[in-house]
Amino acid sequence: VDAMETAGESDAEKRVAPNTTSWGVPYAYFAIGDSTGCSADHFKNMRLVFNLAFCGNVAGNRFIGDCPDEAEDFMVKHDPIRSCNAYIKSEPKELEEAYWKIKGVYVYEREMEDVKPSTSEDAQ
């Protein structure tokens, strides 16, 4: 599972079957499958949820850096999540137009290169 930024994506990346080798390094990578400690068997009959969690661990921790003016006005003990929550509670009108616009959800698999284990003969 990769998490990548898509803002400013190129025309090639907007295709349904893009060349994933041209993509940069993902923000996150979670190895799933045999010998990873995370069996793929856990991932079946699941739902995909798009959550507008404005002040959770990911979004809230970015509040001070991404919204410095608002963070200055609503700072709570230098805690970005509490500051974000204070802003959200005091400015509900700011969220009236908060929504996801989703063109589609696509699943891509990276082709991994086969790495041959070295042998003692290779070292000679």
TrEMBL record:
Q: Name one Pfam family in it.
A: GH16_XgeA
Q: What is this protein called?
A: Uncharacterized protein
| Organism whose genome encodes this protein | Pseudictyota dubia
